[in-house]
Specification:
Blueprint lengths: L1 H12 L2 H4 L7 H4 L9 E2 L2 E7 L4 H4 L25 E5 L16 E9 L8 E6 L2 E2 L1 E6 L2 E7 L5 E4 L7 E9 L19 E2 L3 E6 L3 E9 L5 E9 L4 E6 L4 E6 L5 E7 L13 E7 L2 E7 L4 E4 L2 E4 L2 E2 L2 E6 L12 H14 L3 E4 L6 H10 L2 E5 L11 H18 L5 E8 L5 H17 L4 E6 L18 E5 L9 H10 L6 E5 L18 H15 L5 E2 L7 E2 L11 E2 L13 H12 L1
Parallel strand pairs: 23-24, 23-30, 24-25, 25-26, 26-27, 27-28, 28-29, 29-30
Antiparallel strand pairs: 1-12, 2-3, 2-4, 4-10, 5-9, 5-12, 6-11, 7-8, 7-10, 13-14, 14-17, 15-16, 15-18, 18-19, 20-21, 21-22, 31-32
Helix pairs in contact: 5-6, 7-8, 9-10, 10-11
The structure holds alpha-D-glucopyranuronic acid.
Length: 586
């Protein structure tokens, strides 16, 4: 008994989390480009419990039935089938008032049947996003751990399935200093599994990844394919373009080739998509892809060879009462609201939004800026932090690089200009160029208020320089903004990636009176007056008011009120009309 006693205590004294901190899966190992493949959804009713003291790990509740340190069947403190049930995908914060501010571990579980449909089929489980750490347990075994709250991850489960399976998703939304983002950020920390949980059946040899893009200069499409399994070649078809080509697969399963085409170019005015089909050894991968060119030359940005002023707006991924768990209808409304404002681009801040957003933007004709949450101060000198940011960058780019609407990858937002941060960002830019040389890189760089210029060292390494500035709100002297623009002459496009002011919808007063709609409208008029003609793009902050614990005063009450539309997504403020009139008449 004594010996067991020690074991028992030692288990109770070990921090259970570190015991199960297995190496996180990464994009290189696990990425699946599904295109338009059929998926079998595991969404719907799951049993759920918050797990404030990590009892799930501490008492090894993933074992069926759970046993205690003596190997005895433990009294069942956590009977899954008696837990409350929630609908996935969702954020637990929105399930019940008592969970609103809960940050920690939550456990989701359900059972599901499995019957093979084809001899030798391979089965992959894919989770669209879980914030922030997600451990996946299948039939009592830990099969994966993923870190990063906004990108998909997949794992092969072929040899772990039985006819009746129990899956457990243990999600930990705790903010930690070495995570990406770190401890402090101006949006709400929604926890849980808030995008689709699905499984996909593949043949023994299948197309794991495909990237199809128009060459930035020549009339050819570049095709890069990764085949998992034994294949000697792939076949590419685009019927509308009379493309019918074979490409060899090398020993590493990679196929790369260029095919001469003259496609109708995708643009916001003409969002033309082509059905691309790639086959190999009985597997077929398809996607609807638009072909266009984006380039930065001198101070300007060019789409399909035409100079384009980017008329944009920023937005978070949030809807009332459902947090990050947007439906397709929510996403369509967000994109329609941007188009009605007169925008041709949206900045999806500050993290990867749902993959459907870029699919819908492809169809609806609006450009996108996408980014990873390398936000404010991070542990730029920590290996774990760099590895997480690099993996999130890879997962985002590999997920969305077939989307014509995406034209900018942003590697950071308002980060302190240190050497560690510069090295960190340069490595992210290198990943962007390695995985996708067809798009532009940018970052929300810092303005040097003392020297009245943009002197961020990162400017040298991005294709497009973006700055966040809040003249008229945090700083009152608009003349400084004039000086900054005059003193910051680059041979690169310069955009404003955030500017704006707070206003509580329906609160009226006069210019100079903070949080009135009139003052917000005044700031927009002055910003437009000073910046017009001097920028390659303008992306004010922000389309909708949004939840954040950082904003607690009588006008904000937990919301950032810089939206042009209030958090209900129904009330346009006076400033909405100022920006709309500028965009539609520019
Ligand atoms: C910063 C930051 C935003 C924030 C905004 C604000 O620039 O990038 O995330 O919400 O300013 O102050 O409202």
């Amino acid at each position: 008994m004594e010996n067991n006693r020690k074991d028992h205590d030692s288990i109770l004294l070990i921090d259970p989390i570190t015991q199960y901190d297995v190496a996180p899966i990464t994009a290189e190992q696990s990425f699946l480009s599904l295109g338009l493949r059929d998926r079998e959804l595991l969404n719907g009713r799951w049993h759920f419990s918050v797990d404030v003291y990590n009892t799930f790990l501490r008492k090894q509740l993933f074992l069926q039935p759970p046993t205690d340190a003596y190997g005895k069947i433990a009294p069942v403190d956590h009977d899954y089938e008696q837990w409350e049930r929630v609908n996935l995908p969702s954020n637990w914060n929105c399930e019940k008032e008592k969970y609103w501010h809960y940050e920690g571990s939550g456990i989701y579980t359900r059972t599901f049947p499995y019957e093979p449909k084809a001899q030798g089929e391979r089965v992959f489980l894919r989770i669209g996003a879980a914030n922030y750490i997600c451990r996946v347990w299948l039939n009592g075994a830990l099969i994966a751990r993923h870190t990063g709250g906004f990108t998909p991850f997949a794992m092969e489960i072929s040899d772990k399935l039985t006819s009746d399976n129990r899956i457990i998703l243990e999600v930990d939304s705790t903010r930690r200093i070495k995570q990406v983002p770190s401890l402090n950020y101006d949006w709400f920390n929604y926890g849980g599994v808030y995008r689709d949980i699905e499984f996909v059946r593949m043949p023994k040899t299948f197309i794991r990844d495909a990237f199809v893009s128009l060459d930035p200069v020549k009339d050819v499409i570049d095709v890069q394919v990764h085949v998992d399994g034994d294949a000697v070649g792939i076949h590419v078809r685009i019927d509308e373009l009379d493309v019918d080509a074979d490409i060899e697969v090398n020993a590493q399963g990679k196929a790369q080739g260029s095919i001469g085409v003259s496609p109708e170019l995708w643009s916001p005015e003409n969002p033309k998509l082509y059905r691309v089909q790639i086959t190999c050894d009985g597997d077929s991968w398809q996607d609807d892809i638009g072909f266009r060119r984006i380039a930065a030359r001198g101070k300007d940005i060019y789409l399909n060879g035409e100079k384009l002023f980017l008329k944009g707006i920023c937005c978070h991924e949030e809807v009332p009462n459902r947090g990050h768990a947007l439906t397709k209808e929510d996403m369509i409304q967000t994109l329609q609201d941007a188009k009605e404002l007169g925008c041709n681009i949206m900045r999806l801040a500050h993290y990867p939004h749902h993959e459907q957003m870029s699919r819908l933007a492809d169809q609806m004709g609006i450009l996108l800026w996408e980014e990873v949450p390398v936000y404010w101060a991070l542990c730029f000198d920590a290996e774990e932090t760099l590895a997480s940011a690099q993996n999130q960058m890879r997962e985002l780019i590999m997920r969305d690089r077939n989307r014509a609407s995406v034209v900018l990858w942003s590697v950071g937002n308002e980060n302190p200009d240190t050497q560690a941060r510069l090295d960190f960002m340069k490595s992210l830019i290198a990943i962007c160029k390695e995985l996708d040389p067809t798009r532009l890189t940018t970052a929300a760089c810092l303005v040097n208020g003392q020297q009245k210029c943009v002197s961020d060292r990162l400017c040298e390494y991005v294709d497009v320089i973006s700055i966040n500035e809040y003249y008229g709100w945090y700083i009152s002297d608009f003349d400084e903004l004039r000086q900054i623009l005059e003193n910051s002459q680059f041979d690169k496009p310069l955009m404003i990636s955030e500017t704006g002011a707070g206003a509580k919808s329906g609160h009226h007063g006069v210019q100079g009176e903070f949080f009135t709609e009139e003052h917000q409208a005044y700031v927009y008029r002055k910003q437009i007056e000073i910046t017009d003609g001097k920028l390659a793009g303008l992306l004010p902050w922000i389309l909708y008011d949004f939840n954040t614990p950082l904003r607690m005063n009588a006008f904000q009450e937990g919301y950032n009120r810089k939206g042009l539309i209030d958090e209900s997504r129904n009330h346009r403020k006076l400033a909405w009309h100022v920006l709309h009139d500028y965009y539609v008449n520019r």
